[in-house]
Write a structure and sequence with these properties.
Number of helices: 9
Radius of gyration: 23 Å
Order of helices and strands: HEHEHEEEHEHEHEEEHEHHE
Number of strands: 12
CATH superfamily of the largest domain: Periplasmic binding protein-like II
Strand content: 15-25%
Structural class: alpha/beta
Length: 274
């Protein structure tokens, strides 16, 4: 009996030691953390997954929060990299910004909506003044601090030269959502044919319909030619003067490599490195 008991204890000790060894192996990974734009997030997650396949000892963690969060986290050293989907403001200092891609902003409606084209005056009129565009009488915007909203508000300009970012306020018919996915979900919900919104071109899917803007389709070719006017940069942010960790530097180099930029292009964006 005593020998059996001893063997059981010994086996238990070996098992626990083996599990502990496996656990310690799992914790040996170096983490690279990113935060910011929810428009950049899906692309960065794909870049991270591809990078991890070749670097099993490094884990890429991508968090959202919006471009404003990406900026503030970078300034306060809460991440390795920030992500922004707009140009930086003059007040956003102490940051190095590198363009990883160019993205278009697609204006979207429910697939059941009969609208096919909108003009800058119509978009401005709905968001700033509540003027309906045919049967479309309500709009969705993004939250304050969103890079997509910042770019959209700066780029939509009426015939008098007024942009949405200079409007005193949005019309009462404008709702706010805090992520790209939330905008798509609300627009695509059955029966919401009176709604209009905007998302990253790279996030377009068959769930929603993209409208022409001033008669021009939202395509990569039209963005590259300059015909489609709603486009903005995807930026990788790092703190000025900060020395990147070895793992962070490897991921940075991967993003701008031929392999990384091929992922950018495959995902429907315009690559930054030709």
């Amino acid at each position: 009996m005593r020998s059996r008991k001893f063997m059981a204890i010994a086996l238990a000790a070996v098992t626990m030691g083996t599990l502990a060894a496996f656990a310690s192996c799992g914790s040996d990974k170096t983490t690279v953390t990113l935060s910011g734009s929810t428009s950049v997030q899906p692309l960065m997650e794909k870049l991270g997954a591809a990078f991890e396949e070749a670097h099993g000892d490094i884990e890429i963690v991508v968090n959202g929060g919006g471009s404003g969060v990406g900026v503030s986290d970078t300034q306060t050293d809460k991440n390795d990299f920030g992500m922004a989907s707009r140009e930086l403001k003059d007040s956003e200092t102490g940051i190095k910004a590198e363009k990883i891609a160019t993205d278009g902003i697609a204006i979207i409606v429910n697939t059941g909506c009969t609208l096919d084209n909108v003009t800058p005056d119509e978009v401005y009129g709905l968001y700033a003044e509540g003027a309906a565009i045919g049967t479309v009488n309500a709009a969705i915007s993004r939250e304050s601090g969103s890079g997509t909203r910042g770019a959209f508000d700066e780029l939509v300009k009426n015939s008098e030269g007024k942009t949405l970012d200079k409007a005193e306020s949005f019309a009462k018919c404008v709702q706010t959502q805090n992520s790209t996915g939330a905008v798509i979900t609300q627009i695509s919900t059955a029966g919401n044919t009176n709604l209009i919104g905007y998302i990253s071109l790279g996030s377009l899917s068959e769930k929603v319909k993209a409208l022409k803007y001033n008669g021009v389709e939202a395509t990569v070719a039209n963005i590259e030619s300059g015909a489609y006017k709603l486009s903005r940069p995807f930026l990788l942010l790092s703190k000025e003067g900060k020395t990147l960790s070895e793992a962070a530097q490897k991921f940075h180099d991967f993003i701008f490599s031929a392999e990384g930029q091929a992922i950018v292009e495959k995902d429907g964006y315009i690559k930054a490195v030709k």
